[in-house]
Design goal:
Length: about 450
């Protein structure tokens, strides 16, 4: 590892905040990954496992204490608060992926579950094709329980594993806490990435850039790649809190199921976040063009719609004496979207995860897909960088596009099926519109 260069474009150098590894900023990097969520971490960890002596920088500006909402994926049968952190569901089959990324990850995740950081899901319940709940219990899954993740804590665990790998790597790897600001190509065809850390701006140089910035696809958009929203959907979400008994084993709310409920104007989701204090997230999904979208931004309208149109979710909130937390509800995008181009091997950039293809939360394309996409891109990029098996940039382009198309094809099939089974709201604007099929990549 080279010594720290104390100058960079005339500015004083600040070492990475997360990693003891130090990058020589005056040398070109092989890869810079922008975005340290699950997909970015999976890409970085896979590169570390499969490349020898290459240089890589993972850039992330996450606040581990922040409240984070992302689509909460489940299968239907038939921006930031520093108090609570939620995310999405992690199926038990993901253990093999976590072990591949780092051998201690499954055990450390189990330790967090035992500490109450994540909650075991008792099963899925849905009032979907009928007003009555249909249930699938976790005991029927031979792999174990689905987890309701504290998303911020899970991401921090992954970043810690990246840091651990980086500190032991023979290559030049580092994890940098910084904000992505700009990107351009130099006259020599090298990517010049502008970042800001601790209030200071600097530029770094890399041959490959990986966009793992989520739905906003910050890198792709800055280089002129459009993000196409094929099936718009909004999610209005709120956190509900109950009185803390002081005993984590005693609470009015012991319902750890994933629960969804279809209503005339859209569909609702809820899951328990923590037992102590009892905390639950409730999400309403509808179309941006639907009248309910404007009304649901107001707390009284959100609560009124919740209690007027749902039965099962309303009962949980009422019987457990929940109150909506201040500053809610809030709104985030939750529909289908994709980049017009997900990668360009000739230009040496690739998007991964939601930056490339994002899905309606009902379709089950959740955390497993994010981890798998990161691993797949990491493997393919490793082959290009190491020239394994005669891999070329042309084959990288073909393989990645085909893989993404396969994921999107499966998504479209699931999405069409899940929405098509709801027949009881025919004539309602939401249900008549939502079955439209999105465009391909």
């Amino acid at each position: 590892m080279t010594d720290v260069d104390t100058t960079f474009d005339g500015a004083h150098y600040c070492p990475p905040l997360f990693s003891p590894s130090v990058v020589d900023w005056n040398c070109d990097l092989a890869v810079v990954i922008i975005g340290g969520g699950p997909t970015g971490c999976a890409t970085a960890l896979t590169l570390l496992k499969n490349t020898a002596r290459i240089s890589c920088l993972l850039i992330d500006d996450a606040n581990p204490a922040s409240f984070k909402v992302t689509p909460l994926y489940m299968k239907a049968s038939a921006t930031e608060l520093t108090v609570h952190c939620i995310g999405e569901s992690l199926p038990p089959e993901s253990a093999r992926l976590l072990h591949y990324l780092h051998p201690t990850l499954p055990q450390e995740l189990s330790t967090q579950v035992a500490a109450g950081i994540h909650i075991k899901c008792a099963g899925n319940a849905s009032a979907w094709s009928s007003p009555y709940l249909e249930e699938r219990h976790a005991i029927l899954n031979p792999f174990g329980h689905v987890l309701h993740l504290n998303r911020s804590e899970f991401e921090e665990l992954l970043r810690n594993k990246v840091e651990d790998r980086f500190s032991k790597a023979q290559s030049r790897f580092s994890l940098q806490k910084a904000s992505f600001k700009s990107i351009r190509k130099s006259a020599e065809g090298i990517w010049v990435v502008g970042i800001e850390t601790m209030g200071r701006g600097r530029e770094i140089f890399a041959r490959w850039v990986v966009d793992s910035t989520g739905r906003k696809a910050s890198v792709a958009n800055k280089i002129g790649i459009r993000s196409i929203c094929s099936d718009p959907l909004l999610a209005f979400y709120a956190v509900f809190s109950g009185a803390d008994s002081g005993d984590p084993h005693f609470t009015l709310d012991n319902d750890t199921r994933t629960l969804i409920e279809a209503t005339p104007d859209g569909w609702w989701y809820t899951s328990l976040i923590t037992h102590s204090p009892p905390t639950r997230v409730v999400v309403f999904h509808t179309l941006p063009s639907h009248p309910s979208a404007k009304a649901s931004r107001r707390v009284d309208d959100f609560l009124g719609r919740l209690h007027d149109t749902t039965s099962h979710i309303s009962r949980i909130i009422t019987e457990s004496n929940y109150d909506i937390a201040p500053t809610y509800p809030r709104c985030t995008a939750a529909g289908s979207s994709h980049l017009e181009r997900v990668c360009d091997a000739a230009e040496r950039w690739v998007a991964v995860g939601d930056a490339a293809v994002a899905f309606d939360p009902l379709s089950s394309q959740g955390m497993m897909t994010a981890l798998e996409m990161g691993i797949y891109v990491g493997l393919k990029l490793s082959e290009v960088l190491e020239s394994h098996c005669g891999s070329t940039e042309e084959s990288f382009q073909k393989d990645v596009v085909q893989a993404y198309l396969a994921v999107q094809k499966e998504y479209e099939k699931n999405r069409r099926y899940y929405y098509s089974v709801v027949k009881r709201f025919q004539g309602q604007a939401f249900w008549d519109t939502v079955v439209d099929v999105g465009d391909g990549l």
